[in-house]
Amino acid sequence: MELEGKVAFITGGGRGIGRAIALKMAEAGADVVIGYKNNTEAAKKTIEDIGKYKVKSMIVGLDASKKEEVMESVDNIIKEFGRIDILVNNAGITRDSLFKDMKKEEWEDVLNNNLNSVYFCTKAVVLDMLKRNYGKIINIASLGAFYGNIGQVNYCASKAAIVGFTKSLAAELGRKGIHINAIGPGCIETDMLMKVPSKVLDKMLDKIPLKRFGRGEDIASAALFLASDESDYIVGQTLIIDGGLELSIT
Fold first, then answer.
1. What's the CA gap between 244 and 42, in Å, rounded?
2. Cβ atoms of residues 129 and 178 within 8 Å
3. pLDDT tens-place string over residues 205-214
4. Distance (Å) of CA 244 to CA 140, 153, 213
5. Per residue in 160-193, is it b (16+ CB within 10 Å) or e — as a string?
6. pTM, two decimal places
7. Is 214 helix (H, G, I), strand (E, B) or coil?
8. 3-class DSSP state for residue 53?
9. What 3-state class would DSSP assign to 220?
10. Which of the listed residues 106, 113, 168, 209 has the most CB atoms within 10 Å of its CB?
């Protein structure tokens, strides 16, 4: 699968899943733009590592939950690269708490960062995609969108909304040559997962048939497929990548 000549914009692209996707798409020949919010050093390190693939790359600091910052960033990317062919909506946070203790700010922070960012970024790129009748949009959801997690009402609600957003917009724009799909990761080795207590991690691992947590590369390979021409007859789907964890839940 090759992406030579394509331009990919990946939010939350400096670390974890976003970093893995950025490297995988660069390896496939795409020019890559990484959006990041806080960790400048991680974003710069990812761009440095992309350098070995001899593609064009750039980092963009932005808060993807703020419309003005997104619009300005997308305008700058299009000026620099000419277009955006691939958008990966990967920006996201957690603010875990039992619902009875969950503060209004914890609810709003997660919905803004996880869901509103998808709306703003997609809105910003889709008009240009419509002009060219071409685009690949990949939204990072979660296995939790389908099964929920204790203490993550806000997070799972945001990810379930992303699944609905993906299906609805795919129905609207599929006929325009814009392919929109989602990926639902299970337990992936990221900074977010490593915050979970070790006893809980052990229980989670025991439920996974493959007996390992997922790696960023596992998600990146799926994102590459959905961004490539090989997936041109797939729209509105959420691809679950969880090592079989779903089998032990149902």
1. 31
2. yes
3. 899 999 999 9
4. 18, 23, 10
5. bbbbebbbebbeebeeeebbbbbbbbbbbbbebb
6. 0.96
7. strand
8. helix
9. helix
10. 113
Q: What is the pLDDT of residue 81?
A: 98
CA distance 219 to 34: 17
Residue 214: which residues within 8 A CB-CB, separation 6 or more?
185, 186, 187, 188, 189, 241, 242, 243
- The amino acid that residue 235 corresponds to is V
Among 157, 149, 93, 89, residue whose Cα is nearest residue 118: 89
Beta bridge partners of 181: 138
DSSP single-letter state for residue 115: I
Helix spans in the chain (H): 16-27, 40-50, 67-81, 104-111, 117-132, 144-147, 153-173, 191-194, 198-207, 216-227, 245-249
Strand pairing report for 86-89 and 135-140? parallel
Write out pLDDT tens, residues 89-123.
999 999 999 999 999 999 999 999 999 999 999 99
**How far is it, in rounded angstroms, from Cα 8 to Cα 66?**
20
Q: Which of 225, 227, 117 is nearest to 165 (CA)?
A: 117
- From CA 154, how far away is CA 158, in angstroms rounded? 6
Terminal CA-CA length for the chain: 33
Catalytic one of 36, 134, 155, 233 = 155
Tokens coding 233 = 């007859």
CB atoms inside a 10 Å sphere around CB 226: 22
155 has catalytic annotation: yes
Helix, strand or coil for residue 62?
Answer: coil
